[in-house]
Amino acid sequence: MRWWDIEPVMELELKLFPEDAWSHGMYWSELAETHPGGSRHYTVATTEDGTIVGYAGLMAISGEGDVQTIAVDGAHQGAGLGAALLTDLIREAAHRGCAELLLEVRVDNPRAQRLYERYGFQPVGIRRGYYQPANVDALVMRLDHPSTEPKDIEDTHHG
Question: Which residues of the chain are modeled with pLDDT < 70?
Fold first, then answer.
């Protein structure tokens, strides 16, 4: 993700997360830390014509990684983009020497939870009222020892 991607990412962010969308400033702040040696890694998924249809971000500090965000446009869900974005984040976490990778996912989003479980993430706790203003709890999930070769989930797609 580059600075010129912020506007299309924000359009998608507001569409997908109308109640708890990140701000422009949050994305600018995150991208400021993507330089070599920085603590962040952000990527986008695009169509052939360059339209951004997904994005994801990682924070990696002192051997611990955290999935900051991962999102795919509703019209493009089910095509493997979420898996591709997650694979990128896991590989980057491994490359940065992270011993574990954490994430929060809404308790009312079983589809995302299943994706994370297929990659080996395990539930480790609940953050009450994490998503505001809707006051929705977050399920905290952890992947120990991220690998540069995350397990192949192709076998789990059964149509």
Answer: 150-159
- Check residue 154 and give its pLDDT: 45
* CA-based nearest residue to 20, from 73, 69, 89, 82: 69
**Would you state the pLDDT for residue 141?**
97
Domain count, the chain: 1
Please give the model's pTM, rounded to 2 decimal places: 0.89
Residue 126's domain is classified under what CATH number?
A: 3.40.630.30
CB atoms within 10 A of CB 126: 13
| Residue 50 φ then ψ, to 5° | 90, 0
Q: Is 100 exposed, middle or buried (0-12, 13-18, 19+ CB in 10 A)?
A: middle
Q: Residue 119: CB partners within 8 Å, gap ≥ 6?
A: 86, 87, 90, 143, 150, 151, 153
Structure tokens at 13: 């962010």
Cβ-contact 139, 103 below 8 angstroms: no
SS3 74: helix
The predicted pLDDT at position 152 comes to 52
User: For residue 156, how many other CB atoms are within 10 A of its CB?
Assistant: 13
In a domain, 137, yes or no: yes
Pairwise CA distance, residues 124 & 104, whole Å: 10
